[in-house]
Amino acid sequence: MPLTRIVYCSELVKNIGSNEISDILDVSRENNAKQAVSGVLLFNSDYFLQCLEGSRAAVNRIYCRICCDQRHHNAQLLAYGEVSQRLFGAWSMAYVPWTEATRTTIAQYSSSTEFNPYQMSSESVIKLLEELGQLLLTSEH
Ligand code: FAD
Question: Which CATH architecture does the domain made up of 3-140 adopt?
Answer without folding.
Answer: 2-Layer Sandwich (3.30)
